[in-house]
Specification:
The chain is mostly helical and 1131 residues long. Helix content is 68%, strand content 1%. It has a two-stranded antiparallel sheet with strand order 1-2. Strands 3-4 form a two-stranded antiparallel ribbon. Helix 6 packs parallel to helix 8, helix 35 runs parallel beside helix 37 and helix 36 runs antiparallel to helix 37. One of its GO terms (molecular function) is beta-tubulin binding.
């Protein structure tokens, strides 16, 4: 479903409580793990059980805390199933896999705390992991859980000497670290991260500290060695990162210079190494910077204090008053200087550089690193330098053309604000840049790369709202609230509209001075902004009533959305302008901007995209002013009338640029015509409309048709002379048109104008008397039907009675349109249009009872036939039309067996499915009035190319044939109907081929009545003759192949029958056909028949199987001799 669909509502919501049914099912699935493996389970049962468990957990992926009451119970059950032995059992592996899924949903930090961490588990865990390290079983999730389990156990401050016979704790630590290091050599997976945690935990222990120096030396040498090996370099960086994060700072400071010198060659970050290595390098450099700085309470940072919602809403003072951090800033600077200024500068430089990395994860990590390091800077001046560098290097001219720079800078500003290190004095510099980021778009051809920037800008404002006191934010609130409102209403992406709505909600909730904040929260909430069309057409109108936002909304629409790169946004922006200006009094503003837009529309320097937006916006503004009865100055009206004429050279271009302008001019003419302005030269517009109606682009033709309909209604109905000249043009074009698009255009304009008899006859003749040049013009015939349908519904009863004969002849002829092209069955558009026209005419036209009595049943027959054909949409259309006729009082009482049809044709959409063909069986059995039509539809489907429909139709036909094959009267009717339909369809390639595809099945199930002597049925004899005639007169090899297939089934008839001898004779003649493929097919069919016969001639079988019938070099005389031997033996 498109998000612009007016019925498009909430596309998703989050659970706010755990479903008790889910709780019980999760318990049951976990308890059954042991039972499943206790017997001999099938892989299917195991997989289904785990997939259901995973599916239930992932329902709460967004709010996993709802599962907190259930998770401990699940963990206990699963842990009890695990037996820590060298070779884990299937139950143990499955239980670990279930725990791993919990880690994915709830997070490993939460799950690992619930695992048992008694010291007695250390040895079993080590033995199990040692076995797994050598095992080739690819169950990474189980290994990951075991490593996490080992990590939590190693965190216990027990004495490791208890686990070594020699009493040396180094042996145990070495063993643990060797096991973890073994897993680091694997390809990237979650086990590597868990293994690095185990290593860092060993080194952070008191008994592991002496190993730090040697281990770091080896690790740094390994990093240098593995510079060109991505897999091993990533493993080494993960270990280094874990050490820098988890080992105490006092133990790492002595090695800081060494680490810095050894890894400096990896910087600046090479993006070719990939996002994982890039992210690790950013984390490493920020951890080095953090170690170089002492942990301290940042005295100079902004402290808002305790924020109580009750106090804020009641205008009371906060419990802890906000301090003005900008005053006396130097008094709060720490006296201690920087111990490692070079390392800190190096760290900040590379983190700031990483803010413009091409990978989102790297930029996000760099932003967090900036916030963490800046919090530890001892002097506010240092922090100001960092922030100024971000603003100058990422928000200036560089950020204007790079989404990476702007996105990284926004993330960094948000992190700095959240930590209080973005001082209030800098807001005046930062907020204008953030406002620009809210509308940032980096155009790249037919798309843009600005989504992340706008999302990050919303995050920045969200952080500002939570961080700063309302008194500090007061002077910025109007601009921020207006910018957020425009983003929430008009952004192209639904997730960004939601992000802006959430940020506005935070702003209105935390900052008490937001204008009309509470009122707007209900209008522009998270779910209301889901539907973009509703935002542009309804919600923005309600928001525009507030003075604070109205001008911002109008400016945003005019400056950003009217010239947006997306065509749909430009159209919606014009509609928004119209709706706002209709309801609210912005007449002066509209007149001023209208003058500007009119000039922009005709300027040669205007780009095609902007011209498109200006034309549509101009039309909508004119319509709004007309609705408010505001007079438009004469000079502007004159310019409006000249726009389509001036733009003629632009619309005549055959390129995509010309296509865009033609669309916009069509919309402009429609909108200005609806305003009903009496423009001086708008009579010339009809010439442009007629030209657009002949366009090769279907969308432009439809837009031109809509424009013509409005233009004729408001400006042309009183001008009979002009109407007559257009009708004469239609008559000439329809009679001697040489282009399909010209005919389509004339049929479209004919739908709108009051037709005369000559034009009506000309339109009907395009279907009744097609010429050789227009046989493939199915689209033109479709529009011809629409034109005569429109005329028939609008004419008087006397006129309808006069044209009814030719009208229905045309519609019935259209029902037999099976035109095919490279696009497939394009005739279906004609058939569908004909069915829609038939039901509309019978229900809505001024039909007398005699006409209804004559044509209702015939129309129903045609529709029933189409309801059995192979194209799903055609079946859906036929079902819809039948349902409408049944529900119509005047037509329903004239339909035979109406109750049977009512029960079958209930839901049109269901008929898209092939299986619905079986629902037509009652029509075959109980409705003789529709027997011929339903049978023809089934045959056409059974001989089609669509595999699903073909199988279903053939199965239905087979069931019907077998049910009547022993009833001579019913079977004769079936065969005679098939014969009659086959005879009628000889000139129709598609239906003839369908019959010949289905006939082998019919001949293979003749039953007791005709199996022995099929010539008793005249229908069978005639069908065989028609087949032979059709295949002989056709140059297509496929027809001759189908003939052999059909005749091969007749070889199963009685050997004394004439049909059998005739079929055998034709097949024997095919053995010497000039086409090798036919010789081979005839030999195969004859061989298959003889193998199943009661008496088998071995010589014949040998000749058929050993002769190379497909050899193109073989002499025909030799094959004739072989065929004579076969015929002689068979005789």
């Amino acid at each position: 479903m498109s998000e612009d669909d007016p019925n498009h509502g909430i596309i998703g919501c989050l659970p706010n409580v755990v479903d008790p049914i889910h709780v019980e099912e999760l318990r049951s699935l976990v308890k059954n793990v042991r039972e499943i493996y206790s017997s001999t389970p099938s892989e299917t049962i195991i997989e289904i059980s785990f997939l259901r468990y995973s599916r239930l957990l992932h329902l709460y992926q967004e709010q996993p805390n709802l599962l907190d009451s259930l998770i401990p119970e699940l963990i206990d059950i699963l842990v009890n199933n695990v037996e820590l032995i060298e070779n884990l059992s299937d139950v143990s592996r499955a239980s670990l896999k279930y725990i791993s899924e919990l880690c994915i949903v709830r997070g490993r930090k939460t799950i690992v705390r619930l695992l048992p961490h008694q010291v007695t588990l250390l040895e079993p865990l080590l033995r199990t992991l040692e076995f797994y390290e050598k095992s080739k079983i690819s169950d990474h999730s189980q290994r990951n859980v075991l490593l996490l389990w080992l990590w939590i156990v190693v965190r216990n401050p027990f004495d490791l000497r208890r686990f070594d016979p020699t009493g040396d704790p180094n042996n145990v630590i070495t063993r643990i670290m060797n096991i973890a290091l073994g897993y680091m050599k694997w390809d990237w997976n979650t086990s590597q991260y868990s293994a690095s945690l185990v290593i860092s935990q060993c080194l952070s222990r008191t008994d592991g500290i002496p190993k730090i120096s040697q281990f770091l030396d080896n690790l740094l040498d390994s990093i240098i060695l593995h510079e060109s090996d991505r897999k091993l370099l990533l493993a080494d960086l993960l270990i280094l990162l874990a050490i820098l994060k988890h080992v105490d700072r006092s133990n790492l400071v002595p090695h800081l210079e060494k680490i810095y010198n050894k890894i400096d060659f990896l910087y600046p970050i090479d993006e070719k190494r990939g996002s994982l290595i890039g992210k690790c390098l950013v984390k490493v450099v920020q951890r080095i910077g953090l170690i170089a700085l002492k942990p301290r309470n940042c005295k100079w940072s902004y402290q808002r204090g305790k924020r109580l919602l009750d106090n804020m809403l009641n205008d009371h003072q906060m419990d802890i008053p906000t301090t003005s951090n900008d005053e006396n800033m130097t008094e709060w600077n720490d006296e201690d200087g920087l111990e490692y200024p070079g390392i800190i500068e190096w760290s900040l430089f590379h983190i700031l550089t990483s803010l413009s990395n091409s990978e989102t994860s790297v930029r996000w990590s760099a932003a967090k690193g900036i916030g963490r390091i800046t919090m530890r800077l001892p002097n506010a001046d240092f922090a100001l330098q960092v922030i100024q560098q971000i603003i100058d290097g990422h928000f200036g001219e560089t950020g204007q053309y790079s989404s990476w720079h702007s996105h990284g800078a926004c993330l960094a500003i948000a992190e700095l604000a959240r930590r209080g290190v973005l001082l209030p004095s800098l807001l005046e510099t930062v907020i204008p840049a953030i406002e620009n980021a809210l509308v940032f778009e980096d155009l790249m051809g037919v798309h843009q790369n600005g989504n992340q920037v706008r999302d990050a800008a919303c995050y920045v404002i969200w952080a500002f709202a939570r961080t700063y006191d309302p008194t500090i934010m007061a002077k910025y609130l109007n601009n921020l609230a207006s910018s957020l409102m425009c983003c929430a209403l008009f952004d192209r992406e639904v997730n960004l509209r939601r992000a802006a709505s959430a940020a506005f909600q935070e702003l209105a909730g935390r900052q008490k001075n937001v204008p009309n904040g509470i009122t707007l929260l209900t209008l522009v909430d998270y779910f209301a902004v889901t539907n973009r069309q509703k935002c542009y057409e309804e919600i923005c109108v309600n928001v525009a009533q507030f003075e604070t936002y109205s001008q911002s909304i109008l400016d945003h629409l005019i400056n950003k959305k009217v010239i947006h790169w997306d065509e749909k946004i430009r159209e919606q922006a014009g509609q928004a302008l119209e709706n706002i200006c209709k309801v609210h009094n912005f007449d002066k503003f509209c007149l001023d901007i209208l003058d500007v837009f009119v000039e922009k529309c005709v300027e040669n320097s205007t780009s095609p995209i902007h011209r498109h937006g200006f034309l549509i916006a101009t039309g909508h503004i004119v319509k709004a002013l007309s609705f408010r009865k505001t007079s438009i100055p004469e000079n502007i009206q004159q310019k409006l009338a000249e726009i389509p004429i001036i733009l003629k050279s632009h619309t005549d271009r055959l390129s995509q640029v010309g296509s865009i302008i033609r669309k916009s001019v069509c919309r402009f003419i429609k909108l200005v015509s609806e305003a009903n302005l009496k423009l001086s030269t708008n009579e010339m517009w009809i010439e442009r409309i007629l030209m657009f109606l002949r366009d090769t682009n279907e969308q432009i033709r439809e837009l031109a048709k809509n424009a013509a309909k409005v233009y004729v209604e408001y400006h042309l109905l009183d001008n009979q002379q002009k109407i007559n000249s257009i009708l004469n043009l239609c008559l000439t074009t329809l009679s001697s048109g040489h282009d399909e698009n010209e005919r389509i255009g004339m049929c479209m304009i004919s739908e709108i104008l009051p037709l005369n008899n000559d034009v009506f006859d000309a339109i009907c003749n395009t279907i009744l008397k097609p010429k050789a040049t227009d046989l493939k013009w199915a689209t033109a015939r479709k529009h011809a039907i629409l034109a005569i349908c429109s005329f028939s519904i609008s004419c008087s009863a006397e006129k309808f009675e006069e044209i009814s004969g030719k009208l229905f002849d045309t519609l019935y002829k259209a029902m037999n349109d099976y035109t095919t092209s490279a696009k497939g069955d394009i005739g279906r558009y004609v058939r569908e249009s004909s069915m829609l026209a038939q039901y509309q005419i019978l229900i809505n036209a001024n039909c007398c009872d005699e006409i209804l009595d004559e044509h209702v049943i015939q129309c129903i027959r045609n529709m029933i036939q189409q309801s059995a054909e192979r194209i799903g949409r055609t079946r859906e259309t036929s079902c819809f039309c039948i349902k409408q006729l049944i529900e119509s009082e005047k037509c329903g009482r004239r339909i035979a067996n109406v109750e049977i049809l009512r029960n079958i044709y209930q839901e049109p959409h269901d008929f898209i499915q092939d299986s619905k063909l079986f629902d037509l069986k009652p029509i075959l059995e109980k409705c003789p009035e529709y027997y011929e039509n339903i049978l023809l539809g089934i045959v056409v489907s059974g001989g089609g190319l669509s595999e699903g429909t073909e199988k279903t139709a053939r199965k239905l036909l087979l069931e019907h044939q077998r049910s009547i094959c022993n009833d001579k009267m019913k079977f004769d009717r079936f065969l005679e109907t098939c014969c009659r339909l086959f005879r009628k369809s000889q000139k129709g390639i598609r239906i003839t081929n369908s019959f010949m595809q289905v006939l082998p099945q019919i001949f293979g199930n003749l039953g007791e009545v005709y199996e022995e002597i099929p010539e008793k049925s005249e229908a069978i004899v005639e069908i065989v003759e028609i087949m032979r005639t059709v295949s002989e007169n056709s140059p297509q090899v496929s027809r001759q192949r189908l003939l052999i297939d059909c005749l091969a089934e007749l070889l199963n008839c009685g050997k004394n029958s004439q049909i059998y001898r005739k079929a055998r004779k034709i097949i024997l003649e095919s053995l010497v056909n000039l086409k090798p493929v036919l010789r081979k097919l005839a030999a195969e069919k004859l061989y298959e028949h003889l193998c199943c016969a009661e008496e088998v001639d071995e010589l014949v079988l040998e000749l058929l199987s050993t002769t190379n019938w497909q050899d193109e070099c073989c002499e025909i005389e030799d094959l004739e001799k072989t065929a004579e031997k076969i015929a002689k033996n068979l005789a």
